[in-house]
Every structure is written in C-alpha cells, then in structure tokens.
Amino acid sequence: MPLPTVSCIIPVFNGAEYLEEALESVFSQTYSPLEIIVVDDGSTDSTPTILESYEDRIQSLRQDNLGPSAARNRGIQQSSGELLCFLDADDIWVADKTEFQVALLESESESGICTGYQKNFWIKSLHEEELRSRNSALSKPHPGPSSTLMVRRTVFELIGLFDPQLRHRDTAAWLMKAREANVKILESKQLWVHRRIHENNLSRKRGSQDSAELFSLLRNRRSQPHDG
Amino acid sequence: MPQSIRFITKEGEIASNVMDGEVILINLGNGTYYTMGGVGDRVWALIQKRATFDELCQALTTEYEVPIELVKFEMTKLTEKLLSEGLIGINRDTAEAVTVERPAEKLKYISPELKKFDDMAEMFALDPPLPVLPKNDKK
Touching check for A185 and chain B: CB below 8 Å? Predict the structure, then answer.
C-alpha cells in the first residue's frame, strides 16, 4: 500500500529571519511523500524573495494579512495530502517528526489527530531571559499548540477549519472542538518541535487581545450545555 | 485579616472580566479559571482600586443592606481564598484612600462565592505566556 501524502502548511508573516531554517527542517524530514505549502500572510519583509528561491521545492501562496488561522485555512484548502501538519515559520521540526507521527496514526486508525511536545530555545540576544526562565514552565518540554499537530483531512471535513477570528488560540480552540466531537486524539510526549523564543513571538504580543479571545471562548463554552 | 492590609490585582498573570454580572478570573499560568457571583463584581472593582480590607468592608456596608459583622466574616474568607489561589497580592505601596458614596437606596447583598474550574485548563495553559521583555533585553 502506498504511503499517505503529508501536507506541511507554513503560515508566515514577516518571518524572513527564520523562515529558511524552518523550511530546511521540513526538507530534512525522514519521510516522503511530503507536500510543502507556505502561505505568505501579507509579509512586507524579504519573505516573498526567499519563497521565490525555493519555488522548485514548495508551493507558495500570498494573501492580505488576515492572521495565522486564516493562512492555515488557505493552506488546507490548497493542499492534497491525506494527513496535514503545520509549522510556524520561526519553529523547527526534528527530523523524524513526520515519519513517527504517520506511523502512530497508521497503527491507530481510529485516531484522527496526533499531538506532541515542543521545547523552547532562546536566540542568543535573549540569553538573560533564558537564564531567568531556567526553572519555569517555559524551559520544560510542553504540549505544542500548532507546530506539533498532525491531522487527518477527514477531521477538518467533519468539524471544519480553524476559527479565522482567533489570532492566538486558534489551534487550541480547534482541538477542544475536535475533542467535543469525540475525535480520538493521540497525545504523544515525544519532542518534535524546537520553538524559537525571540523578540517578536506572537504570544509575547498577546496582551489584551489574547485576554479578549480567552473570554470569548469561555463565554461560548459556558453557553453550551454540559454533560453531567 | 488585618484591617489596613491593602490588596492588589496581578495584571499579566491573572486576566479578569465581568460576564453576565459574574467576575471571571483566569490564571494565565495554569489555565484554571474562577467565577465570583453576588457582589463579587463590586468586590473586584474595589480590589482593583487597591482598597484596604477595612475600606472594602466599609464600602460594601455603605452600598448594600448588610451588617458589618457579616461583611467582615465573608470578606475575610473570600480575600484569604483569593490570596491562597494566587489571584490577588498584597500591595506594599501606599495608595489613595478608597471611599464610596451612600446610594439613595441600599442594594440587596448577595454573598460572593468563589468557584474554581479547570475544564479549559488545557486550552488556556497550552501556550505558557512569555514574559514582557525588559528594555535591556531588546536589540
């Protein structure tokens, strides 16, 4: 039986500084067939030039700046793989991530989603923050919100795409929706992603916008009937 | 609870909002959230103004139909719980005295009960918040 095609979707907004490292980590995967789709979410830096230089190895799309969830959704619609993965343009996959996850999902056909762990690493200029974070949750491997995901296309067909209104909690909210739809989730503790901590991480900029998203999600949750 | 102790909210660690008359507090570090009904929204607003324990109790008895003894008993329990859950801190700085005006008619007092939930912890704490960069860490 042929191996399933995996689509890797990379949303990027002004991510030129780290994009090539992210792409190289996908090229280095020990698994194939792998389809790579980069969605440029309206970058104004040299991201388009970088993408052009890889045009023989990736598909790239461009859209007005609509946020990472809308960019992921665009990539999903463009993709053809049976299995879909996502990588943030500042993160790095470990080489056997795809191979390992495909094997896990192939061995558990009832599972629709596979998640894993990520570990933060700090860029050199943030060495002081790295030292301060040494004993906190930030320095320990933890479940990854988007770059560790592998999803069967059928799950998106069942529960829909990411909520494009959410800019910070889209994958987490989507996972909760999947769980509520009784989609079986394989939760591996394997470390599959190195998450780069730099000055411009989206989660560093969350602030009040993120709080508004959290309360909106909570309102939706509390307005739904609960079991038990 | 000492009368003069002054409370402080923990911005950046605890997100707060009022939904349908209930105060909602989210611990951004571990994803646990709390609700506080009754006069909880008024209590939280007074804590946000950095009221002392005494000012908090005085304000509630000024605005609500409730004996001071009951307010002190309930506020002792509530503030101790808010402190032990890490939802508020003690303010070491001095602050302006918090006073309120007596309303034309006192409002009905409903005890504020703090309830704890962790059914959204997975989503809220999935991506631990990064610290705000101090100036010397920036390029």
Answer: no
